[in-house]
Specification:
The two termini are about 45 Å apart. The protein has 15 helices and 12 strands. The mean pLDDT is about 90. It is elongated, with a radius of gyration of 30 Å. By secondary structure, the chain is an alpha/beta fold. Helix 5 links the parallel strand 3 and strand 4. Helix 1 crosses helix 7 and helix 2 crosses helix 7.
Length: about 300
Amino acid sequence: MTFSIGQNVIDIEIKALKLLKKSISRNQFETAVNFLYKTTGKIIISGIGKSGHIASKISSTLSSIGSSSFFLHPSEANHGDLGMITKRDCMILISNSGESSELINLILFCKKINIPIVSITSEEKSTLAKQSSAVLLIPKSVEACPLELAPTSSTTCTLVIGDALAITLLRKRRFTSKDFLKLHPGGKLGRLLLKVSDIMKTHKLIPLIEQDKNVSEAILEMTSKGQGCVGVLSKKYNSLIGIITDGDLRRFMSKNLLEKKVTEIMTKNPKTLSPDTLVDEAIKLMNKQSITNYFITKKKKPIGIIHLHDIL
């Protein structure tokens, strides 16, 4: 029975989302997005209670993907924080009933300085809806709570509308993974969005040797730099023309290997990466091509090297 109760809650919330998809006004959604997109200041989001928690999450999502935003607690707004709102901002107010008394002064202040209000509510004829520039209605009377008291489906629908607004703005602003990196420099995701130029070994740490050298000298260079390979440079242009790996040494093992020229055993035209390649893409290429390192080149000249171990 316990499990079936849980499943029933999920079913009700899915039903609410299906109702939301069918009922949401295209005109009101596009109007809301246009207000938010044209905002030159901040997107300010407010709500009380559970709506406040959802508002805070939506604000965080917007800021993380290029639409600067902050959460304003309505009680704090009534005690001086109204001063945080400027004429360049846009307000999103969340209230299931549309009659939360804590939002009244926020509504009045927005009207006073003439900034748009986007509301998320289930009551089309509520005070909040009537005072809004755009109204995003959520289904009513479909709470998963059997007492119809604890906000459940209504907060889920509100959260989904927030995500819909955020992703629509992301697409309109042409926000890219590179833009995302600037705002998320920490954590695993941030590291994967780094460029190879951010982590590559450079200058004297790059294993390189000129094309007229012997294999014995290449082995010394390879061993001293610890990358498991050495790049071969053209003597005239200093460009990368080949690579020798541990595997190449094993394949060409013979009594006179050390006296051979590096050009006799090198792999010509090695695979390289540009400095702007993302680390995530480099990992995918390493796995796909079954190699563990890349030289980073600019106009065919090596400027760095990365190894899978460096990334990990």
